[in-house]
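User: I'll paste a sequence; please echo it back and then give the predicted structure.

Assistant: Echoing your sequence first, then the prediction.
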Amino acid sequence: MFIRKFGLAFFLTCASSLSALAQKGETVKIAWIDPLSGLMAPVGSNQLKSLQYLAEEYNKNNAAGVKFEIIGLDNKLSPAESLNQLKSAMDQGVRYITQGNGSSVAGALVDAINKHNERNPGKEIIFLNHSAVDPDLTNSKCSYWHFRFDADTSMKMEAMTSFIKELPDVKKVYLLNQNYSHGQQVAKYAKETLARKRPDIQIVGEDLHPLAQVRDFAPYIAKIKAAGADSVITGNWGSDLALLVKAANEGGYTGKFFTYYTGVTGTPTALGQGAAGRVYQVSYAHYNMGGTMGKHLNGFKAKFNDDLYTGSMISIFDLLTGAMAQAKSTDPVKVAAAMHGYKFKGFNGEMEMRKYDHQLQQTLFISVWQKADKKYPYSPENTGMTLAPVKTFEPYVSSTPTSCQMKMPS
């Protein structure tokens, strides 16, 4: 009897130990579905390298003991092509995907993944959204299988306009944005929040232009100057921001720019030294944070002579490995349940993947383009310039409510 009891106890102990290490040594494939061709190819190339670099770093040591394999898939910034690449990823046995360039792409992927997961129990896929910031993705179009690691457009605009509120010289604003869901939302929330916080500010003009198609922004700069705007609010990214600020410099526009993506490939070089003190960025990170972000910035630059600016990918690996360790599994169903409401200390402070809508709650920063110095030494694209922090907003300040009615899996 004693032997039987001892044997059962030993078996249970071993089973528990095996369960605790069930995911250790497993390879987790993540498919990156973003542009590697067209005007936004430089952004996509940087972000794929960033994801691969971080995977290598986390493969050295992580809470779950897993290994990551990154599969890069070019979606040509097209929702239709993204669905083709999603199928390609599934055919390769991928259960985790990440994307971020283009909220219209993200919306198509969310719909497809919802349908796939409903029809294929046991083969569920998780969508790790690194940069697609349309608020609808965690409101009316929210999904249990979608997790956003960037702050959404409304959150960033709350922080940005709280900063603008304290700038009395901002009186006439021009809204210039890309003509798709993200750009439309930037304009919408800019008007709403400015009306609430600074009703004296005039919106003197508004334009939406095609995404990743404009090669000469001189006509837009002429309209901005003719409208008498002292400031521009733009959610533009990639070539659409780099070419915009290049046209502003060449056209002699000396107003302020309030941006979301100043640090993205090409824009630092386009800004040069002439834009010092006039260009601001709202983001969950900045170049001179030190700590984990600084470590990866410096490591990436040493390896590629390039800048790792998509810090949300660090949060993806932090949360994913923590959730896998907690779930003792790499099964997306168990990992999603662990990620739902997960709290952790990230590179920019305390973070929480809010369970109501799967929107990461995190600290936001306003930074300004200026000459790099001893206090803020990091120089993107070797310009001799940097983005220096001027204001910090704790998570509760920029957190916005959600209308998400999340459908939980059975």
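Residues 154-288+363-398 form a domain with the Rossmann fold fold (CATH 3.40.50.2300). The CA atoms of residues 131 and 380 lie 20 Å apart.
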